[in-house]
Specification:
Rossmann fold; about 40% helix; single chain; alpha/beta; 8 helices
Length: about 190
Amino acid sequence: MLPPIVFLRHGETAWNAEGRLQGQRDIPLNDRGRAQARRNGEAIFAARPEIAGYDFVASPLSRARETMEIARLAMRLDPSAYRLEERVQELTFGEWEGFTTGALRVALPDLLQARERDKWTFVPPGGESYAHLLERVLAWLNTVEKPTFLVSHGGVGRVLRAHLLGVSPHQAASEDFPQDRVLIFENGASAWV
């Protein structure tokens, strides 16, 4: 059985607030995102006082790194004591990064409709699908040997829900994934903190 994974999506960025597709663009946290990271770190520490013994892993994108560092400070831990993992970066939206879905609906309505019909396997121009992202994340997941605290992205959280909980790919790819809560995967189930 997989050890517990405490999953934290990075805090809000200006692009999140504007509804822009970020993908692998390196967009920093905004003030609200920093407050979310602090609150989430406090909540994790209260729920899991043993968290200091976990493996700490973050996506290399700055919004995930900053979230990790703020959360670790809130947990009374050295903010720099974690490692980066390329395989848990957000999926790339390719040429669509920086656009809102509203702008895409005007510019590329047929492609956006195709994505909305099947978000799991749809590949935006120059991008990757959730199915591709799952392959990357599984390569990392197969290396997890101890309880882990992971700071990553909404797409990664979605594919983890599909794989670890059996959530249908369509549902997993379409559901909202909050930035102000923590999701704990443990013993084949999950719980929000």
